[in-house]
Amino acid sequence: MIIRAFLALVFFYCALPAFAAQYYVAPQAPADGVGSSARPFDSVKSAIQSGILAGGDRLILAPGSYDAITVLSDFNFSPPLVIGPARAHTAHTPQIFVRQGDGLTFYGINVWPEKANLAPDNLLETFSGATNIRFENLEVRGKPNANESYFSWSAEDWVTRWRHNGALLRGAKNSVVNSRFTGVAFGITIEGPDGLVTGNTISGFSGDGMRTLGDNGLFENNQIENCFKVDGNHDDGIQSWARHEGADGRKIVRGVKIVRNRIYEWRGPEPHPLRCSLQGIGLFDGIFKNFLIKDNLVAVTHYHGISLYGGDSSQIVGNTVVNLRGEQADRPWIKIDSKKTGPGNRNNLVIGNVAPKYEGIPAASRLNLLLQQPGREFVAPLLQDFRVRADSRLYQMKNYRPNAWVNSNQ
User: Fold this and answer.
1) 402: which residues sit within 8 A by CB, 6+ positions away?
2) Keyword annotations for this protein (predicted)?
3) Distance between CA atoms of 154 and 274, rounded to whole angstroms?
4) What angle do CA 169, 407, 171 make, to 5 degrees?
5) Alpha carbon distance 59, 41 (integer Å)
6) Fold for domain 2-19+56-396?
7) Euclidean distance between CA atoms 310 and 296, whole angstroms
8) In the chain, pLDDT over 90 holds for what percent of residues?
9) Are strands 223-227 and 201-205 parallel, antiparallel or unpaired?
């Protein structure tokens, strides 16, 4: 894991233009810094406002703890300005917030609050005027030691003391890549169009793992695990709903791809008083136009495995939907239904899936497999190993790719 992270960092910086300049920021540096290693800027905000940075430059954060990184003034960097420590995860801030501008990449930074009951609500946040903002290889926690402690938190810890959302990104072409979020309320929410969320882990959350609310988003190869029930929220692994009106006046969200994700309701100690019953992929209030839900693993105990309410020309293909306990059961299901209020589904395709139950899907048993004996198909379902056995009949299924959801980097 360490070698892989190092190689990723080397590749990332080597991919930058050869002519890129390097500038420096240090915590508690004098306000008259010029960005050199001897006289660094005192903040990211000061560096950007200096006017000397150009697209493709690197802004290197010296090791240490910084105040919140806030970028309020307009900017335009093409290729993006890269901000992060020379060695990943040696710089810390309680929040990264970008209000407006185009072209920033934050890389290898630790983000968490230092004390209980403190703002911010969102540890990573952008406004709609912030475009092409990328967060990569970040360590984001709701509490400094959340990675070691969140299983022992009380409901009050989750609801009050350490309640922070991971990321709320409202701008176009915002992305979260290869980052870890631990002990958060809502994990990653993308509201802007053309968002990218790939290679991330949400471990320990009390709201929804991920929300995809903008058009043409790609949520791919993420892992979502360990949901805590502490309030009245209907917790989902991945959720979407339509927020903006289309040409005909109906609310619609378009072109989202949810591909090769792994959703585990629970992988922690048993029993646990705050363990939730997680809805897997919940699309309850469309219209959902041209959605693709493909090759995901959904391992939950709730009856909603994958549910599409108000789908239009959308596809649910090749997903593995199983009861987390690994036993024969009639839940979770794959379901298609009408929008809560308004039009029904039309022109949707549900094919090549594996699930214990199907609802509202014509010819479901002909185009999909009804899972009745998990132990016959998977390596060790009682131990949450849902890789397909070498002798499983699933290898003969059309439109189903066994183990497509398995992360080769794990």
Assistant:
1) 388, 392, 394, 395
2) Lyase, Signal
3) 8
4) 10
5) 10
6) Pectate Lyase C-like (2.160.20)
7) 20
8) 88
9) parallel
Other C-beta atoms lying within 10 Å of the C-beta of residue 1 = 7
- CB count, 10 Å around CB of 234? 15
3-state secondary structure at position 12: helix
Question: Measured between alpha carbons, how far is 188 from 161 in angstroms, rounded to an integer?
Answer: 20
Name which of 77, 95, 93 is nearest 85 in CA terms: 93
Q: Cα(163)–Cα(297) distance, rounded to whole angstroms?
A: 28
For the chain, give every domain's residue range.
2-19+56-396
Chunked into runs of 10 residues, the chain (410 residues) has average pLDDT values of 48 55 97 97 97 97 98 96 98 98 98 91 98 99 98 97 98 99 99 99 99 99 99 97 84 97 98 98 95 99 97 98 94 91 83 97 94 97 97 96 81
Entry pTM: 0.94
Closest CA to 295 of 329, 247, 262: 262
Residue type, 184: V
HSE of 89, CA atoms in CB hemisphere, 13 A = 11
Cα 274 to Cα 207, 236, 323: the distances in Å are 12, 15, 19
Are 39 and 33 spatial neighbours (Cβ–Cβ below 8 Å)?
yes
Residue 389 has what DSSP assignment?
P
